[in-house]
Structures are given as C-alpha cells and as structure tokens.
Fold these 4 entries.
Entry 1:
Amino acid sequence: MTGVIRLFRDEKGFSLIEIIVAVILLGSCFMLLATLVHQNSLAIQLTKRKEEAAFVREDIKEWLLYKGQIQDIAYLNNYVFVQIQQGKNLTDKQIARRGHLILDNTGIQRDGSLPVYGEVEVKEVDSKRGNFVRKVKYYPTEANFLPEKLRSEVNQLYIGEYLHGTKGTDFLVEIQVSTPETNASYNPRTEGVDLTILVYDKKNGSLLTSTVLNWVIDS
C-alpha cells in the first residue's frame, strides 16, 4: 500500500494530481498573459492609427481654409452652392452630389467629356498663383478600390484616397455637406455650409475620426 502511495508523490511529497493541476494553472496564466499582451499591442496600434488619422483630418481642415484655393474648391463644387428652386424634386444622384464636396479633378463625374454637375476643373499648375496642392484622389471607376465595408455606388464617387505629397496612403477621406435649405433666404456662399470631414481606414473601412467645419467661401 505504501508503495502505491509513493507512485503518486514526487520526492518533495506533492501528489501527481497536484502537479497536474499546477501545470494547468501555470499554462492558463501564460495564456492569459499572452492575451493581455496581444490586446495591449492592438490598443497601442489603434491609438497610433487614430493619432495619424487625426493629423489627416486636421490637414484637410487647414487645407480647406487656405484662402488661396478656397475658390478653386468652390468652383469644383458649383452644384453644392447653386440655390435650387423651391419645390423642385432632385434625383437621388443629385441629392448625393449636393451632399458632398469633391477635392480633386479626379472626382468630377462626366457625361462624355462634359462635367455632369457643372464642375470647373482646378488648374493644377499656375505660374502666377502657384501649383494647386492635391490632398485627395478619387477612383470612381475602380470597383475594388474601397474596402468591402464601404462599397456602395455613392461611396465610390465621394470617398477618395488621402495623398501625402504625390503618394497615396492607407487613409480615405469623405467630405459630407449639410445646408439648411428650408430657409428661403439662405445663401450658402456667404453664410457657409457645414462640412463633416470623415477619415477612414483604407484596409478595413472603419471610421477613425471626424470633425465638423463651417465653410464660408465668400466672406
């Protein structure tokens, strides 16, 4: 009987069951520690990603407020500032166009060679005024450009890739427009429109940051 008991005890007197339980607990602790380390790493990456997105957001915001090119962007978005006759019904596509700014010639929708919504192309190279600083590039005909989460007919037209210099990045930008058109005397050019600047992750389509800007083009 004594010999049987010894089979279940090590030299220090621990039973085999106690050793097994200790090993299981130790393994669980290591797994928990590894999970915590992984979660902490993901949290750090997400924080860094959001900080980078905040830089993109503020860069776009400052760029929109740069007096030297406000009119260029306004001409690129004439349809947003046209006062629509009261009672006129707009199509879904027209509503979408009035609800977004485009920030680059690549966002112009065309019927043949003519702009659909009266956009005036930005002169990117001007010896007198200097070159137009590009910040966003659009890919309206590339169906797989956007991550699956963001794919829709409207997003394809109005979400573009943020540019760092002339190179693309892994951030996407959308500018939504809000105007109080219920007020008949409202003039969007002098009273401003509310712009919502949204920055998305190009890899997974998640919204990283956003801000609202009241944008006045004729002050």
Entry 2:
Amino acid sequence: MAAKPHHIHHHLLLLLLFLLTTTSISAAPTGPIKTIVVLVMENRSFDHMLGWMKRLNPSINGVDGSESNPISAPKVPPRVHFGDGAHYVDPDPGHSFQAIREQVFGPGNDTGLDPAPMDGFAQQAYDQGGTEMAMDVMNGFRPEMVAVYEALVGEFAVCDRWFASVPSSTQPNRMFVHSGTSHGATSNNPSMLANGYPQRTIFENIHDEGLSFGIYYQDLPAVLFYRNLRKLKFINKFHAYDHTFKDHAANGNLPNYAVIEQHYLDSKNKPANDDHPSHDVYQGQLFIKEVYETLRSSPQWNETLLVITYDEHGGFFDHVSTPTKGVPSPDGIVGPDPFLFEFDRLGVRVPSILVSPWIKKGTVVHGPNGVPFLTSEFEHSSIPATVKKLFNLSSPYLTNRDAWAGTFEGVLQRRTEPRTDCPVQLPMPVKIRQGEANEEAKLSEFQQELMQLAAALNGDHLLTGLYERITKHMTVREGIAYMENSVKRFFEAGFSAKRMGVDEEQIVKMRPSLTTRTSPSIDHP
C-alpha cells in the first residue's frame, strides 16, 4: 500500500534534517551554556517520584489519587488507586519488554490501542510478585520524602512529558541517551554488551568539532558499552568521580559535556546511589544534592545546565499514555525475535529535571509543542539533539530519532541574565531503607549487564562458564571486587599502550584475568 502524502512529507523532512546540517565550519556554544552535565538515574516513573509534586504546583501533570488500575486478585478490591505511600522497594518490579507491554496495554496486549490505556501495572506486578509488589508500583513519594527533588522542582524546571526512548529495560534506553539509538537492542544481548555497540555517539561529534567531554564514574563507566569510547584516544576522558569531579568543578575545569555515573552496586561502605530497586532512594537524593551543590559553587555555574533523568520507569505506574503514533525508527533496524520491534513507539514517562541559573523559578515544561514535528516528544534522544543546538555542532544528527525529538534549549532563553537567587545548598533527604546493604545478594539483571562489560574489559568474556557464574552465582560483594579490578586493569593497559605510541584509533584487548596476567594485545575497532 502506498504511503499517505503527509507520511511522505514527514519522512522527507526527517531526511533533510538528518543530512543537511553542515553549514557551520566549527562548533561553538551559541548562548550562555558552555557546560552540560548529564545524570541518568535508574528505574522510576514520573508519577512514582514526582507525581505528587502536583500538590505544590497544580500546573504539573501529576496525580491526585483518582488514578487507578484494575486488578484480579484474592482479597484485593477490583481497582487499586494510586497512593502516596511509596517506601523502600524490594524486589525489583518487572520492566522487560513483555512486562512493559502488559503494563501499558493491559492484559489484552493490544499494541494498536491509541491512546495507550496504562491500565496493566497493578495486574502485571501482582502476577509477578503478589499483592505487595502490586501496591509498590501503585504508590508514589510525597514531596517531603524526596526533598532534594522538591527543592529542584520548585527552583528550576520539571519536564512532565519526557518518555523513555524504548518500552524496554535499562541498556536499550541508556544507549539512546548519547546516540539516539539502541542499534536494535530491546533487551540484554551478552554478545553486543561484550563487543560494544558500534553506533556513533554525541561524544564523537563533540570531540571532532574541538569541544571537550568527560565521564565521571564511580563503579564502572557504563558508557563503555559504546565500542568507540573504548578507543585509546578517549581513555583520558574517564575520571574517577570521587577524586576529580569536585576538583574539576572548583577550578573551572569541567568539560563542555560531562556525564556522571553512579555507584551501581550496593555495599555497606559505598551504598548504591542510582535509585534502582532495591537501592535506597535516600542515597540517590544525597548524590544529586552533592552534584548540585558542587556545580552551584563552581565558577562555571553561570554557564552550566544540569540534566537529570531516568533511563526507564522500572515497572512503576504512570498515568500519561505512552506515545504510539508518529515515532520514527532511528535507523531502520528491527529488534530481535519474538517481538520484532520496529522502534515506532516510546516507553513510559520518566522524571526529568533541568537545572540552570538561566531557568526561571518553578518552570514546568509540558512538551515540545509540535517542534520540530507535530508528533515530536521529549525523550532521551532530546539530549544529543539539544546538545547539537546549544553547541552549534555542524555534524549531522546521529539518527532519525534525535532529528525528530523535541529539544529544550528554549527553557534557557527566557532570561537576559542568570539568576543570583539559586540556593547554595539543598535540603537533607529522608532516609527510607532500614538497615544496611545486603552484599551477599545475587546480582540484578542490570548489574549482570555491567558485569558482562567488566568481563569484556578484563578479557574474560569468552571464558567458558563465566556467563553462568555472573548470572547465577556472583554476589554483589564479589561483583564489586571483580568490577574494580577490571576497570583498573583496562585503564592501566590503555595508558601503557598510549605511552608505547600505539595508534589511538585502536582498542586494548585484554587477555583473560582469571587465567593469566600477561600483557594486553591491541584490537582494531
């Protein structure tokens, strides 16, 4: 069947945006923002974290308690209403591709429904984890329970229509943040996680146009899932957060594009601060407070934008319908069996906050308002799309998706000078979890993915039995030690190769650490 004329027009416009974007000779920020800091938290929906902020600002598209989901379960009313009693969550709710389809479209799994009914969260959670999990996903935090967010939402901008890029789990969505595609991934692909995803990223566009970027990591830099970032030429872009972030900020040395990564594994000495269940949201709030206060005291504050978002909703309820129409595939790659997903709809809405002295107090950003396309939405590809605009990058858009995604530079253009009344400190959050981290717990799915990356960096990923060891036997305590050693070996080998004069386009390929300690070889990208 022939495409309708307006569809042809839409696709032609996307093609023009994707290709005809090379009018500038070199990049230079076009406005006051010279430093963009990106922090991606884990696995919480907008309503779960920020929905009750509507009590403080009625213009936020949040919740009032009338929202509900049907449920069929013994001794449970036929409808579960959304409450404000969120607390420590363990175990982790469902957020696989199939689980999300059930949550968004209900038990019928009819993906053709428009708008999406968003009425399957309670039932899917009950089917997976019983009544307690159903109640967990149907509750959100009162503003005072997430006091850091309460302050940031009141002082800066909250985006109440920002969606995950893919209706799936962590890694596919994190891929979109810096590259506008997951290269066809809709779930954990051990081979791709080990070999690295090949797509071009915003990091390369920034680097190639003479601007700077840096990764401030705590456990392991998950951006190394992008294969190209493993090249020797980028090895000095990686910094241990605890040793460098505050120093770089205090001395005005933060790069143009800074990505901050969290503690992804939960230990007694270094609690996880990524908000991924079963981690304590209190630790995530402390971490964001620290990042904000570090930036606020930096001489670069007046030229800084901090973007806080979440990779995906983690199985928690959200009442805003997931966009199912007019979403372009990034690159034409179709996802694997059994779903053969065409990347033509988005994931569930997630919390997103924009922080800068150039943002008016109490701003609520409802959406891109039909720009650049009538169907455009804020989603993770909005980050590279906005970076391209703010930094005047001459390179083409990365994919059709970031060419389509809404951009948020407008929120920074409503003032003629930076604010001087931004708080220097944020309030202390409320401790939620009782007790300490369980270091003997088995790894979560996300942590297993990170461990597969650690194995690739360490040269162990081809060893027989390692995948089973990671997925079935490795504890958090063992994982922390293994990850720390892997990162240390990889970077030591990389710096050694650079000193030897190895071509910087190449990638260090380690020999297995579990069998030998011999020298690394060099792998061509």
Entry 3:
Amino acid sequence: MEGHMLFAWMLMCLLLRPSTAQNSPPEGVLNCCEGDILFLVDSSGSVSSYEHSRMLAFLSELISPFSLGEDQVRVGLLQVGTKPRLEFGFDKYSTQSGLQAALKTIKPLRGDTNTVEALKMVKEWVLRPGKAGGARENLPRVLVWLTDGVKPGDVTGPMAQLRDDGVAMLVVSTGHGNYQVLRQVVSPPVEDHLHFVDIDDMSIITKEFRDAIIEIIRAERIHVRDVSTSSATLQWRPVLSGLTGHYEILFKELRRGVGGVETSRPDVFTGGPPYQRLTQTADSSTARLTGLKPDTNYIAILRPESNEQAFNDLHVTFRTRPEVLSPAVVTVSEPGQSSVRVSWGPLQPGMVESYSVEYSALPTGKVHYVQLSRSQNSTLLRNLQPDTTYLVTVTARHASGKEKAMSVKVCTQEVTPALADLQLTTVGSDSVEVEWNGGTSHLRGYWLTWEGQQSSAPGQRSSLYLPPDSLSTRLTHLPPSARVCVSPIYRTARGEGLCCTAQFHSDALVYGYQS
C-alpha cells in the first residue's frame, strides 16, 4: 500500500512540475531579427478589462522570444482611447524582463476609440525615422494593431499613408466585423497579416503571427568590413545561435557576364575559378577571407546549415583595395639652411629590395644620389644651398621587378644674419637718432619697435617698418627710458635684432651697442 501511495505522489509531482519547454523561446528566433515594432492596442470603452488583459497577455507571449536592443528588435506600445497615449517608446526597454514587467502594469484608457488620432501620432512621431525617440533609419518598421473591431473610425486613409511610407501593417481583431475595412489596411499577404480570433483563443495564432513578423524583420543581411588588398571580413547576424549546425562560406572572383558586364547574381556563377570554401561554427558571426587579389571584385555566399530550421543563402559582392606600393607618400621635415629630412611610406621590407633618393636644385642643378636599404624610410639630405628649392625623388625597387617613384619639392631655409650694430643719439629732451649698419643684399627691410618702461601705460609698444635702403631714422616724443629695437626682415623670417635704451640727460649724448 505504501508503495502505491509513493508512486502516486511521484506521478503527481511530475504532472504538476512546470514545463520549461513551454516557457523557453522558440529556437532560432532570438538573434534572427532587427527592426522596430509598435503595438497599437485598443483600450477604449468597448474593450472590457478582461479583454484588455488577454490582449496584453497575447503580446507578452508574442514578443517574449525576441532579443531586444539597439542593434536588434525594439518595441513600443501605444494605447487607443479618447486621448491616445504612448505607454513606452522604442528606447525604453532593452531587456525582456523590463518589457514583460511593464506589460503587467498597463491599465486601459477607456473612452472613445480615437484610432485616427493615434495613427496621426504614429505617422508624425513614433514610426517616423530620424524623429527623437522614433524609429531607426533603414530598418523595418511594423505596426501591429490589436482591436475589437468596433467603430475603428476612418482609418483607411491614414493606414494607407503609413503603408506607402514603408510601414508593414498587421491586424489582430477579436471581433468579427469590419472585415472589408481591415482587409484594406493590412499589408499583403492578407492571409498572413490579418487574423480574426476570439479573445480566449488568441494563443492559437501566436506562432503563426510571430512567424509573419519575423519574415518582415528578419535580419538577412551580410556585411563586408576591413577590406584590404588581399583580405576582407564578412559579418552577419548569428541566426544559428542556439541551434546545431554550421555556416558554409563560399567566395570567388566576380566573373564577367554577357558582353563583359559584371554580374552579382550567384545563380549565374557557373564559369571561372571554383569557389573557395570556409566552415564556421554555429555561434560565429564573422569570417576572414584571405588570399584575395588586389583591386578585384569578389562574391561571397553565406549558407547557414541546420537540420532544425531552414535558412536562405545570403550573398554580397565587394572589391578589394588597390595594391599600395611604397612609396605611397613622401613627406618633408626638419628643414634647415643646409639640410632637410625626407621620409616615405609605407615601409614594405618584404616587398622592396632597396630605395634610392635623388635630388637636385631647381631648375638645373647637379643631381645627387643616395642608396638606402629596404628597412629605411627616411634620410637627412645635407650640404644643401640655403634658400633653394630642390626636387627630391624617392624610388623603390620591388622584388617583383617593379619600380615606383614619387617626387616632392623641398625648400631650404634662407640665411638670416643678425643685425651687427645699433646706436642711439639723443636729440633734444625726448628724441633720438637711431642708426645701424646694413646687412646682406637680400634684405626686405627693417622693423623698429619701442616702448616706454616708465610711461603711464606700461608695456605700450609702437612699431615702424623701414625699407631695406634705410640705415637711420629719428624717433620723437619718446617717454623716459624708452627701449628701441631694430630687426632685419628677410623673405621668410625676421633676423635677430638689437635693442638699446634711450637715456635723456646732458652727460649721455651718444651710446649704443657694438657686436
């Protein structure tokens, strides 16, 4: 007897234990999709509290498998009443736990079924790409309308505008009226996007309706990034995550079609070189393609393989970057009067055998040569003439037999001798005669500055430019202890100058500085 009771107790425990299989999300859905889904829920006075709760329970089950986030699925909910209200927008919840908790706290609005005003909010704000808090650019947008079908208003026009704007329209009606109206507003195919169901039987359509949404927002895209001359990276959404299987990747040169026109259709790739193949695990989302030819068009095909679910092949075309041969850039630094540094890149010791640098003064100077190893990417050119333009050419001799050269003009700095002599002679109580010795023939002039060290405005400075043939000038109305400076001006720079301080008293008539 005790044995029978123990068996009955164990059987009851097994029957009453919660089924984890029923609560687990459908396999293959979690990482499948990317898009914005807005639920338009009728919560007017014609919908009872019980019906409203059943609608929210349906939504909870419908969206529970999806991964939420900025790069996946985002969900918003707008309730319809006399004054429609956005309960939460797309940027509110990025986790299922937060979203599911929010659905349990939503209360009906009551009042009239003002669906037209709600659709106006949808069009102008919630599902408008680029609007603050609105839908994302270049991603699927889905509007799911849950209604009891009672007096929805004149919704045909507003919903047609949304449909024309690229929004996918789906409807679930718990009533059985207004079929013709609802049939007009949904996106084709009608049989997948319009469902009439009793309020207590909504769970019957959950999987079928979810599959219809998945078909709209399935992220069946493959991207190419990090393209170089000989490699590229494929990136895709891991649709096999959680499933058993693998990815097969095929890639080859993009052949020419009829008449020499390039084609990207994978079904016409019957000629040319064979496909190269890679295999990646089910949890992979990237693959690196190597051994590619530079400046060449390629096609790549991603084939998810799984016995649990069928997936479409994805394909993409891309072009590798042109081959970059050194030198691709030549730069100049550290310019001096008799030297300048020349650098180049990229450094390619595996491809280059040696470098040579030749340079000559323009227009007809003697040509000089410098031979450098393949591991060097700069050299300092010495013994150059000051204030002279040179043509410098860097040539790389590649192991393939090719040579590539790049030229650049460089200029050495001019010689800017300092001022050799400066004298001040007082003339009266507030004037001085300023005299100096001239410099070289390529002078452009002189720059005089003076300021009063004891003036009422400390630091006040005056300046004067004089032509190159001037060797003296008179300054008047100077403040006591005025400091006078003279600097030579050359074509590219100002030379080092000299300064003297004016002293206005009877026993100091001539003073100055001699270098």
Entry 4:
Amino acid sequence: MADEDIHNGLQDEPWEERTLHLLYNSKIDQDFSIAKVQKSGRKKHKVRWMSKRAMAIPQVIIELHDQALRESTLRCLSTFLLEKREEDPENYYRTGFLLYNSCSTIAVLLQEVLAFSQLMVDRSLTVRATKRLVNVLTLFQCIAANKETRYKFVKSYVPNFLVPLILFDSPSEIYENVRAVALSVFGILCQAREPEIIQWALESNMVEVCQISIEIGSELSKVIGMHIFEAIMQDESGMSYICSPTCDQLLKRLINTWEHLVTCLALDQDFSPRLLFHIIRSGFSLVMDNLPDSIIDNSFGDLSVEFPLIGSLLHQLRLTVGKIDDCCPDFLPNDLLLY
C-alpha cells in the first residue's frame, strides 16, 4: 500500500473514537464536540468498523509472532477490537486478557514500540510506521481496560515505554494522532482511579507528562491530558502530591500553561469549549488567587450563554474567590463541581 494511501486513511480515522471516547467521563466532551460540529455546519459521521475476516483470537495472537504476518495481523486485530469495544465488550476484555497472558506477546508489542522509537530518534518516521504503531497502541488500550490485567500491566512498566511517544515534539499532524492514542492508554489506566494505579502514575511522573502534553499537544491530546490529570487529582495521594512543596515548580508550570491556554481561548472561543471546561473545573480550582482577567471579567460571556455549563462553572469559580457577591450559582451535578 502506498504511503499516500495510508496518509489519506489516517486522515479519515475517527481519532476521538479511538482515544477520548474510551474514557468513562468523556460524554461531556462528546457533547461539546457535537455542538461545535453542528455550529460549523459539518456532519459528524458515525463510523462502523468492519472486520475483513473471521477472527479466531488465539490463532491471530499467535500470528503476531510471525514477523512476515505481523503488520497485517496488527491491522486486523486492531480493527476487530475497535468494532467489539461497544458491540461485544465481553470479547473485547477477553482479548485483552489473552494478549497479556499469551507467551511473549507483550515482548513482541514492545519490540514494535522500540522500533518506532528508533525511527523517531532517526527522524525517519513514515506514515506507514505510524499506522502500525497506532494498531499496537490499540492492543495496549484493550489490556489497560481489562481489570484483570490492568495492574499487572503497570507493574510490568510496559506503559512507561510509551512516555517518549507522548513527549516527542514533532510538527507532523499525523504524529499528533500517535500522541493522542498513547495518552489514551494512560487515560484508560487511570480512569478507574484505583489507588495502586494512581500511585504508579505519580511515581512515573504522569502529572509532568500531562503538563507537557497539554502544552505542546493537539486539542485532542490536551483534552485527554486534562482527563488524566483530573483522575489523578481526584485521588487523595494525587492531590497531596501536586500540592506538596516539592512540586511547587511543577504546579507553577501547570498554572502558566493553563493561563496561556485561557488567553488563547478567549481570543478564539470556538477552538475548544471543552478544553476551557476542563481547565476551569480542575485547573484553576487548585489555585484561586491570581486568576486570569479573562476568567474574572466577561470575556467568555457569549460562550457562557452558548454553553450554560461553562457559565455555571465560571460563576462558581468567581463566587469562590469573592469576585462576585450575590446569589447562588446555577445547579451543577456533583461530578461537575469544581474539585
């Protein structure tokens, strides 16, 4: 298959369905996205994934060990998982269990990650290699989603090999898809908010990784990074970590990143209302002093009317810091309150 054809195929991929939609609390992000699409007049298509062959999962996993068959096998298995994730979750989770527990399969997948990392270092990435890695990451998503393999997965430290994929700074739009899918693996791991997983995330410097992804990543990567950050902050150990004196510089970098984004969002309010939502809800709630002027004044007045949820969060934040004196903010569900 020519690289140009693969490039076109990558552009047509529904990246949000392959990343953000796998996170438990992404419904609000999907609603923001739908509203944005409707406002632009474009249509949002629901993609149906179609497997091109019958899948006998154990046999297909064995084929991963054959280097001559590996690329096509990764593609078929990835497509199968994308289809079964919603249609047949039992088979989806079962596949994650088989992938992790089958002999040497994790080592094979890790070889793929390391081979791609070498291409990154050599600055010789191709679209084909990018697509191949995305298929590998889709398998890691499946392993991360299975509660029987999730903790073993992080204890093996295999996910840590994905961190360089997130931190790699590339001007290529195609590479941003790799960053988003790699981030989603961590998002899936952290979303259950299991204390052992959160502790691993802290030890693996995932807050720092999130800060960098929010700073340099695409809009989708920024939103997924905020989801991971929120999951970590909702755990007591995560909040203690970010508020500890040793993380003072990290917290300052986070605040600077959020302030810069809010300034940009005030200038282009159609860019990402959902990103603003996450920054208000979990970012500025950590630090109530020295809020940006655009948060205090009425810079987001029109956006607050269009998205009342954002208006309610802004009202609650201003009320908390004493910038408004009257009344009660609009009702917000408990899971949408400022942290």
